[in-house]
Amino acid sequence: MQLSDQHFQAVTQLFQQISGIKLTAAKRSLVQGRLQKLALEHGLDSIDEYVDGVMSRRQPGEIRLIVDRLTTNETYFYREPEHFEFLAEWLRQHRPASAFRVWSAASSSGEEAHTIAMVLAEQLSGIPWEIVGTDLSSAMIEAASQGLYPMERVQKLPAAWLKRYCLKGSGEYSGQVLVDRSLRSRIRFQQANLTQPLPDLGQFDIIFLRNVLIYFDDAGKRDIVQRVLTRLRRGGLLFTGHAESLSNLQLPIRMVKPAIYAPTDSHH
Ligand SMILES: C[S@@+](CC[C@H](N)C(=O)[O-])C[C@H]1O[C@@H](n2cnc3c(N)ncnc32)[C@H](O)[C@@H]1O
Fold this sequence. Notes:
Helix content is 41%, strand content 19%. The chain is globular, with a radius of gyration of 20 Å. The chain folds into two domains: 5-70, Chemotaxis receptor methyltransferase CheR, N-terminal domain (Chemotaxis Receptor Methyltransferase Cher, domain 1, Orthogonal Bundle), CATH 1.10.155.10; 81-267, Rossmann fold. It has a seven-stranded mixed β-sheet, with helices on both faces. Strands 3-5-4 form a three-stranded antiparallel β-sheet. The protein has helices at 5-19, 28-41, 47-57, 60-70, 81-93, 111-123, 138-146, 159-165, 181-184, 218-229, and strands spanning 100-104, 129-135, 148-150, 166-168, 176-179, 187-191, 204-209, 232-240, 253-257, 260-263. The longest helix is centred in the first third of the chain and has 15 residues, at 5-19. Helix 2 (28-41) crosses helix 3 (47-57). The structure holds S-adenosylmethionine. Residues 19-21, 71-75, 79, 106, 108, 112, 135-137, 140, 193-195, 210-212, 241 line the site of S-adenosylmethionine.
């Protein structure tokens, strides 16, 4: 099945309006593959016909589905372990005096938020804590709220944590793990677009903003980081993906360690 230039432009423009992410010609075969799957699911054997239908009807549900399919949601438990090790050590040294709040700002299907929950459960006994996970994709938010994962997503998790915080499924759930309810009950997931005014999420001690900035140009990165920083408490920290650099963006932050930033005073 073919995707014409014109239809590729139409879809990527719509996607950019919503997500802020620009899909270049280099992503064309990926876009084509994902749209082809959607066309087939609708019983159509032409991608262009599917796109024409979406563009003329503009049904929010269908547009949301396209956005869900065109985002890259890859993630897993204990990804970039340095952040979790740093957080554990930081909590040992700065025992919070009040409720501790962490935001997983591009949570995808929730593996990052659930890993953070394990760190907090280990370090903060007796201190209240909560985690908020948000993502552009409502399909990812729905998956995250279930807390049910295929075994391969927990491969990198320390064995002791897997044992302590995950229930191995059997029968129809075999090959899957369910995160323990005691952790799940402290995590809330909701849809939020980082390129738009944010919903009222409150203030956070730590914000994870990992492996999402990579999809934006410098202006887009700066815009998102500035918006996200308004939700960081004084003395808080921002974690980005290790492949994402915030230097040269003229942001009011300083690097504490690779991919860990603290706001400079001018911010508050
Ligand atoms: C690769 S995942 C990162 C997951 C996790 N933070 C990690 O590091 O493993 C990127 C996520 O960013 C989300 N995303 C993309 N654009 C977004 C936007 N404008 N607002 C909020 N989330 C967005 C995607 O839906 C996707 O789930």
